Amino acid sequence: xxxxxxxxxxxxxxxxxxxxxxxxxxxxxxxxxxxxxxxxxxxxxxxxxxxxxxxxxxxxxxxxxxxxxxxxxxxxxxxxxxxxxxxxxxxxxxxxxxxxxxxxxxxxxxxxxxxxxxxxxxxxxxxxxxxxxxxxxxxxxxxxxxxxxxxxxxxxxxxxxxxxxxxxxxxxxxxxxxxxxxxxxxxxxxxxxxxxxxxxxxxxxxxxxxxxxxxxxxxxxxxxxxxxxxxxxxxxxxxxxxxxxxxxxxxxxxxxxxxxxxxxxxxxxxxxxxxxxxxxxxxxxxxxxxxxxxxxxxxxxxxxxxxxxxxxxxxxxxxxxxxxxxxxxxxxxxxxxxxxxxxxxxxxxxxxxxxxxxxxxxxxxxxxxxxxxxxx
Length: 376
What we know:
alpha+beta; FAS1 domain; 10 helices; disordered N terminus; signal; Adhesion/Biosynth-related
């Protein structure tokens, strides 16, 4: 049976119905005389690897506690973002206290690490909307990239931007799917209110629930983390390194903004050369002060706002102190970032989003953002 013939995971209002639905996906209907042990239908399954690899003892234990081990031993295909033991140790203590007493919520968190498809690393996308991954628990996680797309993260809805789960090993093959290893637990929206303290990169002494010791079978070698590159391109590097931003680059240099965009933490809505050509007749009439004001109206200071941080119809304060507004399409995906002097027919459309830089993020726009009072 193909997944498409089943109800969508997002339609499961209660975990019990989700578990029953997913159990039906991995269990073939058989007669009493034709009992089939699907767990041994192929090997090694995702469950086999999780329970026989050093570094996944906590994950294995939790799969057993929630009766999900049999699901991940089924036909699939599945892709699992598997947290290491150390990832569970980093969980907020308040969240852990809830999860150890709420098996249904724990199962939901675990299923938020599973997508019902084969998704090898080469198919992970860095830019919205192609970077959304639908999870079995319902809702999406998001692939985000840094360091020239060399460092990949799989962000849950409730994971903060400054502490995202990094994908540290990829494409571990099982007979029923693929495992990618992550260094933090992916958090769905359902647990956001349970997190009391900011995540820590150190291991708190009481953060993880007690778990059983070693598995009975000899473990294989543990996955090792991949060191992130130590260099990356700044926003200024990217803007001045691409032909389509040559006008933006020349203006940034002319008005002494390149230095600022080489450090700090910024969000930049970057107009293409065509965007500046569209207002070429107006630019000569603008004073230097006004041009600087317009350039700063493309920048959000002290924040890297990715596309999923942009809220429909919300105002965004720009570096010149004025507000732009995010406008979304019918699917509630950000489509325009508009200023007060942008007309309806020439609103800056988000052509490409979530281009990472080591000091922020860039979104490409089709028109120049014009704050109110810019045009003569």
